[in-house]
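Same chain as my last thread, 884 residues:
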Amino acid sequence: MGLTSGARLGPYEIHSLLGAGGMGEVYRARDPRLGRDVAIKVLPAALSTDASRLHRFEQEARAAAALNHPNIVAVYDLGTFEGSPYIVSELLEGATLRTKLEDGALPVRRALDYAVQIAHGLGAAHDKGIVHRDLKPDNIFVTPDGRLKILDFGLAKLTQAAVAAAGGSIAATAAPDTLSGMVLGTVGYMAPEQVRGIAADQRADIFAFGAILYEMLAGARAFQGGSAPETMTAILKQDPPNLSTVYQHIPPTLARIVNRCLEKDPAARFRSISDVAFALEAFGDAGSATDVRAVDHRGRSTRLIRTIAVAVATAMLLGATVLSTRLALGSARSEQLAVSRVELNLPPGAELNIQSAGSVALSPDGTTVVFLGTVSGRRQVYVRRLDQFRGVALAGTETTQTSFFAPDGSSIGFIGPDNVLKKVSLSDGFVVTLTRNADYHVGATWTDDGRIIFGRAGSLWQIPASGGTPEKLTTPDSTKGELLHGWPSAMSGGTVLFASVTGTSLNAARIEALLPTGERRVLVESGTYPLYAPTGHLIFYRDGTLVAAPFDAEELRLTGPAVRAVENVAVASITGMPQVAISASGSLLYPPNDAGTSRLVWVARDGAEQPLNDVPRLYRTPRLTPDQSSLVMEAGGDLWMHDLLRGAFTRLTSENTGGNSFPVISPDGTRVVFRTLTGMQSLPTDGSGQLRPVSGSSAISDIPTSISRDNRLLTFVRQTPDTSGDIYVVPLDSSAAPSIVVSTVGYDGGPQFSPDGRWMAYASDESGRMEVYVRPYPGPDRKLLVSTDGGTHPLWNKNGAELFYRSANKMMAVTVTTGTNITLSTPRVLFDQRYSFASNTTVANYDISSDGQRFVMVKDESDSGRLNLVLNWFEELRRLAPAP
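reply #2:
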């Protein structure tokens, strides 16, 4: 295509050419809408000649964009320009693995580290049913800090058509399909089934992975002949030179792992890439034992480490599946401890509620698990003792969003969407209200000196666990760019760890310690969600992974580098924070990251369901544009536009901020208002223009919900230090201050202007449970009860003649007659089916078609019925990040 500097490719401004080859050109470009640099790969126009294949490519690329894994390049956008498909992705600094291999073999430990990262990235893709089909060193990028990123998922689907059109050239990058006899792939890394033109699955990626690992260790390709046909013959009939025989420094066990990846028969390879990663990590425990600085004083334990790890890797090689138990590696004591992995099932029909920090908790002694579960739309705290078979719901904990244990394990603190902080005794079930206006988004902690630390309006506050008057502990320093303080975690002696968000992204945060004297000390410049382990480690969240670093608790400083400790951890849908808990006894609890997968579906008034798209993501608050052509929704902490006609996804807001949510589309369809970390913002729906702050909004606690039909007024919910949730209205295009509309003793939220602008529907728990009300707007100050048996998520039919709301899993409808007064019919059930409720109990997690006949619902399709529990996890922690 040959784009020059300054040229435009859709909304993107081309800066420079980064590289070119048979698969097109890669450019450095600028996205002026979001103010960031991106990489754009422009593919040859010939690759788009097959419309059906191009569509399948777009589907797979969109699915890859939803992976959100640290070892997979992030895909932002895709489209066509002058007949050429293009992909927009994150701009990476560094070099390809091919460049790294130009100097020969890598050190064994570095090759292992790279291999494990590749395996984890592939595993995340395979778990979503995505196969790369063209894995090679050229498609793996190494950043300056040693992070590997897999590139070009989905390209093989598209390139196959070009190969067929060119006569099936074996030199092109391509992938197999159902056409018999077509030879597709990159020579040297194709699996035998690809060479034969047989349909391939994820085991072809395992073969390519084995070829890459062989090359990293040997400095030479596993299969390479004088010509492409000779290389293909070698793949089919020959084995590469044995690594441990030719290269004496490569251990036989590692060589056997590589050989099993390179088996000719797919059935003889590892069953999954996750098994490969496990075998490599187990081998690494043995192979690196001499570098753990503990050999001399561990003696027999070190030999045990090597024996166990090699045995585990060998068992994997022989086809054994390790399900739940792995022996501890690297204990500082001479006795043998077991690191056991178990899955805890939730009660029948229960769905894990992943909304904010604190969806799971562990008692200090590790014997009791707490999780937030939803059954038939009813969310409660569940307690599961490990000597029991199932969890039991705690009365009085309905709608809880955040939970945490007392230091002695006798009580649980919790916060609900009404922002009321309470505690419940596990011995007698007695519930005590401590204070209102606690922010459940940012968690809470219970100190060993009898205080509960919680967030409120961006600051940290404390209250005696016995009750009393809250006291402010911290105030964000705006001169240093601080926006909010949150995710507190208590250490012994009164010190509290917390995260200070310092930008427009939750990733732009640092970890600090708040000393009993009031002094603040910065511990980590980039990280959030800190936890302290008594092994002498600081655990925190960074770049989508839970990491750990050796930590001196007395001097409050890191004493070693941070290493990846836990991956595949589910994150909160509202903040992007990890759902993880540790106990003082050494256990680790977390739900896997597939606990938040959902799909969008159309649901008719009679409950008939029809898929709306086929891209699994963690969707929230879908909103139809007025012309019904697109949806705007939140996924992964950012807003996306989904073109319902083309099936394309376009990101509207910056990636990985963790705070962009609750979109509201103006009735004229020109703008979307949404919540950010710095208050409500407005953005044109066509992607042009810049973000514009909403007048009078400056905090994450402001949640927009509805815009009046004349596009002039915005109604939203605000939490302040003195209220749990009140309803406000503000003019959108003026500097006028917001005015309060509804303020009760309860939590008031989800306000919705009626189509004629004369009425406002909302939900409130002022009666003791959530109900839906309607009131005149702007007055007088009176209200009518709409729901009769609990309700939330109110929305108007576009014709103004109906109000919809949800009661448990039921979609309810009420006929509305307006005139001088308003008349409401008895609520009737439209359908009774389980769909996601999202993070706020008052803001609708659905939308309605313009004719009122169909609903866009979020259907949970994740494996959200289980929790992962790792017993004696501290033994692994000591091994992963040895303390000096």
